[in-house]
Hints:
This protein has helices at 15-24, 42-48, 63-69, 82-87, 92-111, 127-130, 139-154, 156-159, 173-176, 185-201; strands at 5-9, 30-36, 53-57, 75-78, 118-123, 162-166. By secondary structure, it is an alpha/beta fold. The protein has a single domain (5-201), classed as Rossmann fold, CATH 3.40.50.720. Strands 3-2-1-4-5-6 form a six-stranded parallel sheet, with helices on both faces. β2, α2 and β3 (53-57) form a beta-alpha-beta unit. α3 (63-69) crosses α5 and α5 (92-111) packs parallel to α7 (139-154).
Amino acid sequence: xxxxKIIAVTGATGSQGGGVVNILKKTPGWxxxxxxxxxxxxxxxxxAADGSVEVVRADFDxxxxxxxxxxxxxxxxxxTNWWESLFSGKSQWESGDIEERHGMNLARAAAATPxxxxxLWSTQPSSKRALxxxxxxxxxxxxxxxxxxxxxxxxxxxxxKTTYLYFGYYPQNMAFFPLIKPFEYVSLLLSVLHVLLSxxxx
Length: 202
């Protein structure tokens, strides 16, 4: 029987979770359990294809399913998805409420796992907490930070095992979001100069 430790990875078919899976499945001493709502999806099937990743179903809205998925794990990588709710038509604040609920369901399920040694929670700092009241709200960050505070206040034992991970901007965002795609500054500058010179001739 293998003595490898198990890490449960949420968001395993996404950018963050997928990166964790790709590294840890090659790391000696660890086995990866990918957590997904839909083990039958093409992305989940791809993870399971080489046999090095165990794919398990759980839903962020179902704390009991998360607790079951975490059985026997030594570590959990937890990440939520504020953007999914936003793109489904929810407001920024409704999406934040959902994310906070999901974050706490994950945290409580992890706290109830007796084998857990380390909880890695992907979060963000809150501008709302850091700045004077009414200055700035960033819901995609603020509600994650609410989970940080609640873990420390409501689940102190879990807090003692938690690493709060702050990830920066994804470089691949520039490939997928049209408004932030890079462009050739030289071409743009030449176009502007051409327009300016043409207008002077007129």
